């Protein structure tokens, strides 16, 4: 009979088991998550015990104590769904130096007007945080600051301060003497997070945990961490730009398709209610190789500009460089331009970029990328009052995109007078009177509907 294989190691991320230690999990491909599993113990029989509160009909549960409280930052409240909920645990992740601590320090100062706030820092000293607070104007009487890396000491501060809002910066720096491993490890993060969640739920303390991210942009630590918390936020932005964006990927109390925009400066961080102007270049004369599009970040339309530069290549392999766009998607658009629109691209160096450091990942920017490249290649500028929205297919067709009316309304509000969109993007009831063949009117804009990329490139350089 075959000898049974004894399982001695288990992945802390996904639970994959193996008989020998390996550096990389064979299931989820995560590095450094496989550790000793210990002997398999039989399931224990648990007897009935005392309850914290009797079960009640769901209609008798009082929800007034769990209503959200505004943070004082409208853009953050938009993403959270109205504000911070008592007892909620929020995990905010982002790259180092992106501005997480600055944002949360200002949120702490604004929330201190409603009750005591405890800010626990494990990465900096109290003096360093005080200097930042002086710079951004976050000095208030009911904001308490503690520099701790031990979970027991952190809980002692919670006992003495009794805050309504607790901020831990960051969860990877807090360790517990009751758990094995160094702070930041899988076991330590799981133990610390479980204790903080227990305290938050028992005392209705809103808790915000700051998390590190890996090189791939995912939250560091066990995947279980994201399942335990109530809200997961990502703080994004180019460190060479002042624009910062925050989005929710999990939210038990609100939507997950909202986006908050902020402007980070030396004196603090402020919300941007209308950030579209940051993604446009103001110029007196039109320049070949530029095209404006409207992208949807959640439910918010953002007007952004795509720039392209096409030049003769003197290298055996022409260069292709992108910034703020998906390089694979741009390469596909270039192939469609060459094959379907009969434009020679194989001997050209092509550079495509966005303005203002914004990253456009939506497929609706395909048409703007194609028109910007076509304009730079032919040295023909597009009208500065024209926008283009549409997804480009491999067969050369221009496909419809969701939210076309919302995109066009935003463009009309900003003063654009014409647009190129896929055919059928507008409902018949929303169209204005017919002006000419292939064009309709929408909120004062001349909207040209096209079927193919070749048709779009033909009408784009003649549209007023």
From TrEMBL:
| Cellular component GO terms held in the UniProt record | cytosol
Name the family the entry cites: Belongs to the RecA family. RadA subfamily.
* Gene3D superfamilies cross-referenced by the UniProt entry: 3.30.230.10, P-loop containing nucleotide triphosphate hydrolases (3.40.50.300)
For domains, the record's comment is: The middle region has homology to RecA with ATPase motifs including the RadA KNRFG motif, while the C-terminus is homologous to Lon protease.
Keywords, A to Z? ATP-binding, DNA damage, DNA repair, DNA-binding, Hydrolase, Metal-binding, Nucleotide-binding, Stress response, Zinc, Zinc-finger
Q: Which SMART domains match?
A: AAA (SM00382)
Q: Which residues form the RecA family profile domain?
A: 65-213
Spell out the molecular function terms from Gene Ontology. Answer: ATP binding; ATP-dependent DNA damage sensor activity; damaged DNA binding; hydrolase activity; zinc ion binding
Q: Where in this protein would one find the motif RadA KNRFG motif, according to its record? A: 250-254
Q: Where is this region: Lon-protease-like?
A: 349-464
What superkingdom does the record give? Bacteria
> What protein does this entry describe?
DNA repair protein RadA
Role this protein plays: DNA-dependent ATPase involved in processing of recombination intermediates, plays a role in repairing DNA breaks. Stimulates the branch migration of RecA-mediated strand transfer reactions, allowing the 3' invading strand to extend heteroduplex DNA faster. Binds ssDNA in the presence of ADP but not other nucleotides, has ATPase activity that is stimulated by ssDNA and various branched DNA structures, but inhibited by SSB. Does not have RecA's homology-searching function.
**Transcription regulation as a keyword?**
no
- Give any single GO term for biological process: recombinational repair
For this protein, the record's InterPro entries field holds: AAA+_ATPase, DNA_repair_RadA, P-loop_NTPase, RecA_ATP-bd, Ribosomal_Su5_D2-typ_SF, Ribsml_uS5_D2-typ_fold_subgr, Rubredoxin_2
SUPFAM superfamilies in the cross-refs: P-loop containing nucleoside triphosphate hydrolases, Ribosomal protein S5 domain 2-like
Q: Where, by residue number, does ATP bind?
A: 94-101
Pfam families xref list: AAA_25, ChlI, Zn_ribbon_LapB
